[in-house]
Write a structure and sequence with these properties.
Radius of gyration of chain A: 24 Å
Number of strands of chain A: 5
Structural class of chain A: alpha/beta
Number of helices of chain A: 11
Distance between the termini of chain A: 70 Å
Order of helices and strands of chain A: HHHHHEHHHEHEHEHE
GO molecular function (chains A, B): acid phosphatase activity
Organism (chains A, B): Brachypodium distachyon
CATH architecture of chain A: 3-Layer(aba) Sandwich
Largest interface: A-B, 45 and 45 residues
CATH superfamily of chain A: HAD superfamily/HAD-like
Keywords (chains A, B): Glycoprotein, Signal
Oligomer: homodimer
Protein name (chains A, B): Acid phosphatase
Shape of chain A: globular
Family (chains A, B): Belongs to the APS1/VSP family.
């Protein structure tokens, strides 16, 4: 058997078994991605590994429901969607979504009136999975139920990576003269100093105030604590909250939410 | 050159050019689906046709931003996403998303206290792309900018298909004894009778009241008109709005939105 002349130099060098693999493997991959295989999206590149397209579709539905605040009060990622969420967070789409939201924030920042001279134009930013990422922690726990002690151990290390797109927004707001308030449900007494250091090490410096959960709000829903803090800023201290950015709807609803709110994606956990 | 014995009967029969195609085509398909090719998602089956995966990813980001109310005030679907939105609406994922939201509504309905004997427990449902679908109209217009005259012509025909999942919810609410108010920004004077007939023909019967835009609200944002109507229901007529379902955030924000709101997916158009 002869190879066509223009293929000969390459193909003739290939051992037969490798050649056979080259012929068969792509066909197999295509069959598998047509849904012939089982579900293993924990490790597949998008569309090219055994998976159930319908299950991916349901997990996408669930994720969109979370972002639209239709799904509330969930304690863990649905079991069939753990692989999907891992893929979403680590293989590009989360970053793409984050960039999209940051583009919306930037367009809004460019369009609103700049801060007045009285120094009372404020933005409120959440910390966990807004400024600092807990992806490593939650991925290691396979997005299991909230575990306060384990989370405290993780946060105490002060090793949460900053989220670059949010850091850029933070710097823009600060440099434009907005007062940036970082508002976090983390416990002030036990996590105050490590959080301050973590923020500093990741480049979040020059904010107006870090507001963390004081003992009187322990055990209260995040929405209650955060509403109270924003109310204090707006009604007692006279700040105008021009924008508010968080990964949880509990950051963005309630009292004095601000002129406009931006929801950063987070399919990893739900905070009431 | 010899084929391995176990391949010989099949492979030896193949003409060389066909064999070459068999070797190369799958590799080419894989390269194309990895984003090397152009974008043609208007007609591709998911993941299996030349397309730009990155562009699909950006359109997905945009759609999620719409659902999360991060993208506001847009006049048309972004041009590179027209094919993506068509595919989303017509090839299964929209239906899957809708079913997901309806499951959330059902779980909520099952969990809340049933209507009291005073007949004042109400639900508010939007009409366009909540109860009745305008997909045929918007798809034919390739999701172009809002065209009031053309839309009026379409709506006048009274031919909008009912959305089955929402019809089931409607029937459940009505049969449980909730008063269902259908609240629509459609103009009452010109579209009142065709809307009533369209609803009836699609099975939406037994609602408490159809509330459409009266002349005094012409030209006002939907959010203003709908807030005023809900305020009237809640504060003047004493209804308790237990739930509120719409495809636009302007259905679900403002005054007296109800105990809980549900956002039905709609990446086709934005109503302020």
């Amino acid at each position: 058997m002869q190879w066509p002349r223009y293929m000969a130099p390459t193909m003739a060098l290939l051992p037969q078994r490798l050649l056979l693999t080259l012929v068969l493997l792509p066909h197999l991959l295509i069959l598998l991605s047509l849904g012939v295989g089982g579900s293993a999206y924990g490790t597949k590149p998008p569309c090219f590994w055994p998976s159930s397209a319908a299950e991916d579709g349901r997990c996408l539905s669930w994720r969109v429901m979370v972002e639209a605040n239709n799904a509330r009060g969930w304690r863990t990622v649905p079991a069939p969607c753990v692989g999907y969420v891992t893929g979403y967070m680590t293989r590009g789409q989360y970053g793409r979504d984050l960039d999209g939201v940051m583009d919306q924030v930037s367009a809004y920042v460019d369009q609103i009136t700049p801060p007045a001279d009285d120094g009372l134009d404020a933005w409120v930013l959440d910390i966990d999975d807004t400024c600092l990422s807990n992806l490593f922690y939650y991925e290691a726990k396979r997005f299991g139920a909230y575990d306060p002690l384990a989370f405290k151990t993780w946060a105490s290390q002060g090793a949460c990576p900053g989220i670059p797109a949010v850091l850029r927004l933070f710097a823009t707001l600060r440099d434009k003269g907005f007062k940036v308030f970082l508002l976090s449900g983390r416990d002030e007494e036990t996590l105050g100093s490590c959080t301050t250091e973590n923020l500093e090490s990741q480049g979040f410096s020059g904010y107006e105030r870090l507001m963390m959960r004081t003992p009187e709000y322990r055990g209260q829903p995040s929405s209650v604590f955060k509403s109270a803090m924003r109310k204090q800023l707006a009604e007692e201290e006279g700040y105008r909250i021009r924008g508010n950015v968080g990964d949880q709807w509990s950051d963005l609803q309630g009292e004095n939410v601000g002129d406009r709110v931006f929801k950063i994606p987070n399919p990893m956990y739900f905070v009431p």
